[in-house]
Amino acid sequence: EAARTLLENEANPNLRNKKREQAHTLATAAGHDDIVKLLETHSKGRGWLKGLF
Fold it and tell me: In this structure, are residues 49 and 19 in contact, taking their beta carbons and an 8 Å threshold?
């Protein structure tokens, strides 16, 4: 569901260097506190995001 929400909000999977920041912004705006917390607490958030895009 998180991946779908990000894509529905125009997350661009081609922005390799900006995926984490973009996902964080979209998750914050959409009120997905669980995703925001995951991105903020795990320094390797990019590895988790690879499965989304």
Answer: yes
> Any idea what DSSP says for residue 16?
G
> DSSP character for 18?
G
To the question of pTM greater than 0.70 for the whole model, the response is no
Beta strands in the chain (DSSP E): none
What is the total count of domains within the chain?
A: 1
Condensed to tens digits (0 to 9), the pLDDT of residues 6-42 reads 666 665 555 555 677 777 788 888 888 887 777 776 6
In contact, 46 and 19? CB cutoff 8 Å: yes
Residue span of the structural domain in which 43 resides:
2-50
Tokens of 11: 């997350």
